[in-house]
Amino acid sequence: MADNEKPQGKPPAAEKKGEKEGSKAGKQAVKIPKGTRDWVGADIQVRDKIFKAAGEVFARHGAVQLDTPVFELKHILAGKYGEDSKLIYDLADQGGEMCALRYDLTVPFARWLGMTNTQSIKRYQIAKVYRRDQPAVARGRMREFYQCDFDIAGEYDTMIPDAEILRIIVDVFEAVGLGKDVTIKINHRKILDGLFAVAGVPADKVRTISSAVDKLDKLPWEEVKKEMMEKGLESGVADEIGEFTKHSGSLKKIIDLLKASEKMMANESVKKGVEEMDLLLSYLEAFEIPDRVTFDLALARGLDYYTGVIFEALIELPPNSSSESRIGSIAAGGRYDNLVGMYGRRQIPCVGVSFGVDRIFTILKQRHEDEKQRAKGVDVYVMAFGGKNGLLKERMAVASELWKAGISAEFSAKVKPKLPQQFKAAETGGVPLSIILGEDELAAGKVRVKTLGLADDHPEKEGRLVDRADMVEEVKRQLSEGQSEAAAIPALTKSLDDATIVEKPQTAA
Amino acid sequence: MADNEKPQGKPPAAEKKGEKEGSKAGKQAVKIPKGTRDWVGADIQVRDKIFKAAGEVFARHGAVQLDTPVFELKHILAGKYGEDSKLIYDLADQGGEMCALRYDLTVPFARWLGMTNTQSIKRYQIAKVYRRDQPAVARGRMREFYQCDFDIAGEYDTMIPDAEILRIIVDVFEAVGLGKDVTIKINHRKILDGLFAVAGVPADKVRTISSAVDKLDKLPWEEVKKEMMEKGLESGVADEIGEFTKHSGSLKKIIDLLKASEKMMANESVKKGVEEMDLLLSYLEAFEIPDRVTFDLALARGLDYYTGVIFEALIELPPNSSSESRIGSIAAGGRYDNLVGMYGRRQIPCVGVSFGVDRIFTILKQRHEDEKQRAKGVDVYVMAFGGKNGLLKERMAVASELWKAGISAEFSAKVKPKLPQQFKAAETGGVPLSIILGEDELAAGKVRVKTLGLADDHPEKEGRLVDRADMVEEVKRQLSEGQSEAAAIPALTKSLDDATIVEKPQTAA
């Protein structure tokens, strides 16, 4: 489900008119549209790590990848997002079909299910979605941002796909290295609805009261109660909701708590929900993840279309995190059994999860920076030391040989580059290894392979002069040694000033 | 450079008005916008193989990936595509900035260079671009399609980056398995321009005559000559152009040919171009690819902004290909030294190539189908044979263990699935291996691991009953044996009817 990045602002209708005409006087500014960004270099490496990890987990569960067009026919999106429809980007009417940019990945999936004769599928899609929201770049709210959705569609026995989705959430966060930091809160719409009914909430107020309950993780009880009463609840009714929604704990604990309440269990909806949660617990045990899930009766989730389990993955931030950078939900979803019928003749029950790629990215990037990894992946810089015509063709031939061996390599695209410039280029790029060509050495069939950034007293500081035929092997040897040496650095230099390590050209990723 | 998929049709202004209101009476059709497609399953696997292969080659050359927003400010795109500007998709005016979908990846790259303080970079981008062209899906002309661009920007010595681009084209096609089938045609704008001048083409007619020359690979000389004369050339002038542009061959051959013509070499532009091609040849020799490149004096390329070498990679189709499926250019590009200055204060010389992903996809898909690979990547289907509650939790636990070992696995999401249904599901999904659970075997701590689709007289037809503790190892053993067996099939069954192989559940990718 694609509701993880629910927009929270107003549409940008109030933007300054001036922007439309471009900046100031004269030449129009060369800039990027508001609320969008260019991804480049190290950021893409971190982002791709997330995509790769998630994609591998999904494939392991037999999922098929879907890639839909960036725009859909306008009527496909119409009437699906309630008030948020005003955030949809329309394409201009230039003749022909009326289209709009996709707002999430759920509606395109439902459209695809409706168009094809697919009865059941596990599908995933990782792609950008578009919302004409007021951007807040610092807080990570963008107009173009990534979603990563995994859904199981089809008629299956109760709670089996739901349990697998939860297992997948655990697997994905373990794959990106956040397994220990994430907990999953879970609740069931049938229990929540029944609870509201038992407490005395009128049927037409259930959704609006539900959205008040959803704020309990951010606001104190008093404020939430105030909102409920403003929405027309009596104080006693609100208190009864508050009494139950304050409970959270292991699935077993909350199931037992509910079972112990005759009043609750007398409600058909609660009873059904508890039975399903009981079944879910037994499946989570088979999947070995019951301890990764917390049953939280206050979890409500915003979207209307959920019909069964709902869940939200939360990251525990380190204690020194500022409230500015506080990050809550990084994945969310639930069961929605009545949505696909809007597009096809058949109703297909679905359960799914949407991962907040940008939020996961922000966390991983922080850690990535802590590790001071290098942005580029080039392993070898091929240099000339003097020589006729800067030994350009010789550098080309050496680079060519490295590429053929699958080793990434660069050289200066100058005929006669100076040696310090070449070292500088290698250092700037964080390249760990150099091959230095000299006229006399080449005549003798030799090249120098040298790990960069070694200490002055390191025995291999000057590199090794090797036969040209042994070059590739020597490069591989020094690269793998450099890696183990680099890996050892943090332990060895724990007491050194951080700056000592930063200034030094890094020797491995 | 992103001109590989040059649009050739008219804008779709003439589309039936009716489409705007949706189909027929009543409910609006659930469909996808014209000229777009959903990518799914096996197609995505083939496509990703191209992306991965290209990305690895680019990284090996030290390239950085760039991912720009799907839309740009409208004025960034304005005035960059000449007549084709009418094919740009605008976003509707909903207040705020005026934006349009990207038309290619070159302008966003130039915009990014202009915005950032980047002096030099190797960058690549693989992404969809948008053109409001009349779609011709059968011929592969879409409104949303992929481009894969690699460019080298920066002030470098003559022909060094140009040679590297050519080497990259060779590397990418080798990486996707088309190395043997692709040849690269190359020419130089300075030579072409000089040749026109020598022949007597007026300066203001050079571009339009150039575009006539560009048709020489599709039309007979007589028709091209006719077009030139209609464009105002005298017969003798056209003939002189025809005399030179008919030559193609190795770089050395054509360079020698030009050098032998005093009349040509007297032209400064030709002389400069020939010197550069001479230099390029020496670099291609250092890169070991001079035999992959053909110097074709008739290659002109459509776009105005090329200033130096231009090239086009062509695939040689098998002799039995129908003309319908004839595929010509699958990558193209050249040097463009004056484009980036339109966006920044600095002019940055660039040379680049755009790979035609959709065309490469079509070729690989054809081969992929020939190999009859399975669409999904699931290795194991976990089944129950009888047992209490369909042994669901036991199946879950087994799947869970396989996932943990990195093995892809599925099971029926039914509490009590029938055995034939489970076999059918495995067969449909092309799953090579099954684990079959039985109550008695489980009680004895055993499971059955069985390769699917073995012949009736195969010694392992019934699979192997192994200790639960040895299950993962046995799965890995049978998977790797199944793969080598499947690899041997084409050789062993060469004389059998194809259908024999198709009907059989496939045992490996």
Element layout with pairings:
Two copies of one chain form a homodimer.
Chain A: E1 39-40, H1 42-60, E2 64-67, E3 71-73, H2 74-77, E4 99-101, H3 106-115, E5 121-130, E6 144-153, H4 160-175, E7 182-188, H5 189-199, H6 206-213, H7 221-230, H8 235-245, E8 248-249, H9 251-259, H10 262-265, H11 268-286, E9 293-296, E10 309-315, E11 329-336, E12 350-355, H12 357-370, E13 380-385, H13 392-404, E14 409-411, H14 419-428, E15 433-438, H15 439-443, E16 446-451, E17 464-467, H16 471-492, H17 498-503
In short:
Chains A, B: Pfam families: HGTP_anticodon, tRNA-synt_His. Two copies of one chain form a homodimer. Chain A is α+β, with helices and mostly antiparallel strands.
Count of structural domains of chain A: 2
Largest interface: A-B, 97 and 97 residues
Radius of gyration of chain A: 29 Å
Task: Name the overall outline of chain A.
Answer: elongated
Give the CATH level 1 class of the largest domain in chain A: Alpha Beta
Distance between the termini of chain A: 35 Å
Which key terms come to mind for this protein?
aminoacyl-trna synthetase (chains A, B); histidine--tRNA ligase (chains A, B); nine-stranded mixed beta sheet; 509 residues; disordered N terminus; protein biosynthesis (chains A, B); homodimer; disordered C terminus; histidine-tRNA ligase activity (chains A, B); Rossmann fold; BirA Bifunctional Protein, domain 2; 38% helix; alpha+beta
3D structure, described in words:
Two copies of one chain form a homodimer. With about 500 residues, the first copy, chain A, is an alpha+beta fold. Chain A folds into two domains: about 40-370, Bira Bifunctional Protein, Domain 2 (BirA Bifunctional Protein, domain 2); about 380-505, Anticodon-binding domain (Rossmann fold, 3-Layer(aba) Sandwich). The first copy, chain A, is built from 17 helices and 17 strands. Chain A has helices at about 40-60, 75, 105-115, 160-175, 190-200, 205-215, 220-230, 235-245, 250-260, 260-265, 270-285, 355-370, 390-405, 420-430, 440-445, 470-490, 500-505; strands at about 40, 65, 70-75, 100, 120-130, 145-155, 180-190, 250, 295, 310-315, 330-335, 350-355, 380-385, 410, 435-440, 445-450, 465. In chain A, the strands form three sheets. In chain A, strands 2-5-6-12-11-10-7-9-8 form a nine-stranded mixed sheet. In chain A, strands 14-13-15-16-17 form a five-stranded mixed sheet, sandwiched between helices. In chain A, strand 13, helix 13 (about 390-405) and strand 14 form a beta-alpha-beta unit. In chain A, helix 1 runs antiparallel to helix 4 (about 160-175). Chain A is elongated, with a radius of gyration of 29 Å. In chain A, about 45% of the residues are buried. Mean pLDDT of chain A is about 85; it is low at about 1-25 and about 485-509. Chains A and B meet through strand 1, helix 1, strand 2, strand 3 and helix 3 of A and strand 1, helix 1, strand 2, strand 3 and helix 3 of B.
